[in-house]
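Researcher: Next entry in the queue.
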Amino acid sequence: MGRRYDPDRRERIIDAAIRIAGDQGIAGLSHRSVAAEADVPLGSTTYHFATLDELLIAALRKVSDDPQSAGTGWATALAGPGGGLAERLTALLGGLVAEDRSRVRLEYELYLAALRREALRPVAAEWLDAFVEVVRAHVGGDAATARALVALIDGLLIQLLLTGRAFDPDEVREGLLRIIGGRDVPGAGAPGVSG
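Model: Structure for this entry, 195 residues:
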C-alpha cells in the first residue's frame, strides 16, 4: 500500500499545535496530543517536527505572521486616520481585549515560552523587534521611546490577561502619553504616510 499524498498535513499539524496551546497552554503540547488533534498518525508529527521546539517555532511563526496577530496588523492600524498615536494605540489595544481574549492569550503563551525554551528565543526576538520597528516609525525614529512603548503595551496586555480586569481606555491613554510626551501629534503617522 502506497503513501497517501497529503500536502496540507504539515499545516494541519501546526494548526493543531496552535489550538492545543490556546486551549491547554504549552504544557498540553506533545507529539501525541498534536497527532490526535490533527487526526494524523503520530509518526507524521515527528516526521515534520523532530522536536517539540521545532513545532513550537513553526506555531509561533504562524501566529506572529497572521494578520489577526497583535503584532502583524499594527502597521496598518497605526498609520490610519484619527487622533494621535496614544489614541490609535488605545483603540488598537481596546479592540484586542474587548471580548474574546483567547487570541492574545495564545500569542503571549507562545511568546513567553521562549523564557524556558532557548530555541524559541530568536523567533520571539524577531517578533518583538518587528513590533518595535512599527512603533518606532510613529515616534520620530526614536528607538528608546519605541521600546518603552512596546514594554508598556506588553505589560498592560499581560496584566489584563492575568487579572481579567476591564480595559480602561483613559488609564491606558494616560500611560501611553507619559512615554510619548510631545510626540503625540494628531494624524501623524509613519514617514510617508498621511494621516
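Model: The domain at 66-180 is CATH 1.10.357.10 (Tetracycline Repressor; domain 2).
Researcher: Noted, moving on.
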